[in-house]
Amino acid sequence: QVRLVESGGGLVQAGGSLSLSCAAAGQAFSSYALAWFRQAPGKERALVAVISRSGTNINYDDSVKGRFSISRDNAKNTVYLQMNSLKPEDTAVYYCAAAITLSVWYIPRLGYEYTDWGQGTQVTVSS
User: Fold this and answer.
1) What is the pLDDT of residues 31-80, one digit of tens each?
2) How far is residue 12's CA from residue 9's CA, in Å, rounded to a whole number?
């Protein structure tokens, strides 16, 4: 089990940038694939980006491709989400999540595959 704490959310104008961080406390951070999900008001939680244990396999939702970038630093037990060219439709609560995977390349894409979740951080993009 790993405890996840997000930071870096806030209010930004459309076209701006924000950087989210998720620090993990617990053992074997490198055993986890890591992801960012988001949930907008009235909508279901959705996968934004995921990175494998090795960091070599990454997947993005089509809505953020070319604008968002996920990365991880296993030495710092931290996963990041760099968000550029933000749009009002990016407004949501962003959650960090972790999933233990046997393969260092596997990237879980479904919410139920993740066992540990952060408390969420609000991102608001004004038009």
Assistant:
1) 999 999 999 999 999 999 999 999 999 999 999 999 999 999 999 999 99
2) 9
**Between the CA of residue 113 and those of 17, 46, 51, 90, 100, what are the distances in Å?**
29, 13, 14, 24, 9
DSSP type of residue 72:
E
Which whole-number Å values give the CA distances from 39 to 51, 76, 91, in the listed order? Answer: 19, 27, 9
Q: Is 127 helix (H, G, I), strand (E, B) or coil?
A: coil
Question: 4 with 117: CB under 8 angstroms?
Answer: yes
SS3 112: helix
